[in-house]
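Below is how a single chain appears once it has passed through the pipeline. First comes the sequence as given, then the structure the pipeline wrote out for it. We keep one example in the README because the format questions we get most often are answered faster by looking than by reading.
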Amino acid sequence: MSLLNAQSGFHSNFTNEECSRDDEEAEEVYMAINCYGGVCGIAFSSPNGILKCVPDFQFNQEFTEVFTIILEVNPYLILGTEYTIGSLKDFTSTHGYYDSCLQRLHLIKLPYAPTFVDEGESAAYIMSILPKDSPQMIRAAGALLDYLAKRTSPVENFPFPSVGNVLDVQLYLRQELSNFKSPDYLNTCSSNLGSRLLSKWLRFPLQDMEELHRRQHAIEFLSKSANRSLHKTLISSTKRVGNIQRVLGKMHTSSASPNDWKILLQTLQSLKEILSVCYPHPELGTPFETPESVQSPQQVINSLLDKVAETIDMSSTSNHKRFIVRQGHHAWLDEWKQIYRCLPDILSRLAEHELNRLRGHVDACGLIYFPLVSSSS
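Resulting structure:
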């Protein structure tokens, strides 16, 4: 198995040191490609615990479809055999390799899957989700799971992108477009998320002329001197928008830090500012038209802000470096907090009482409390 850094072109052997290296960017995407007999299967990871699999598809001699997916996803690393990484041509894999990849897929535990008595039922449920007759996709997904297992990255979902709407870009044009990766060229966005989005747009050109004209009108509107203050306001608000997808993924696994909650609250406030600023200007986008029974985006954001503000004690969360629910929000939690606060005083008085009962030469006493919780009948 080999690794290819798809963003820099760096190629190296597969090592445990590379597998155990901590991510500098939570948005790094790892892709596995398996080609055999003119059929290709692709799987790639997502930082929020989602394993995306592209069902088997035919590719031409120029590998247009394969390169299109690589350019759209822009993976940080590509996994494959030496032959696949070198030329993306056919290669022969043994039946045992396929079985081992299939076994890795059987061992996946999805959070929304029902509870099964034995492993056979769980494996049958996993296979019912996967598309039929896609052995190359299964080989690619198995190789990727083997790599992710060394990085302790959970898999929590199975979306299946399809290959279609391919825009064939000639090689010399693709090489010219790669120049835009440099920060000295067009990609000078105010936020990291914006830079990544613009980089994706440059690698995968849009064919929707109506959408392109809409973006051009928005840029022309913000470029006018009369709208300079509006432009500065949008830039300031955009800089405070964080990666909500990553934060929600950490919240789902109960690993969110106080800073993640701060990013969530700050992002919601920034989105509220952006919506309120853009709403009076149709040049910046058509106002959202929602049915009466459905909340508008402004109402949803306001509701989320109120919910976060009334649930989380942000000052205590920042001071204690852990998640703290606001006092008065939940009676059961308030009762246990009161008991917890009184516990040191109760134990100190109990230790002093025990010390008085001991012999005179004992001048100190420590008390250890082991809670005894009886099972409910």
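The beta strands are 2-5, 11-13, 30-36, 39-46, 50-58, 77-80.

See the next section for the split statistics.
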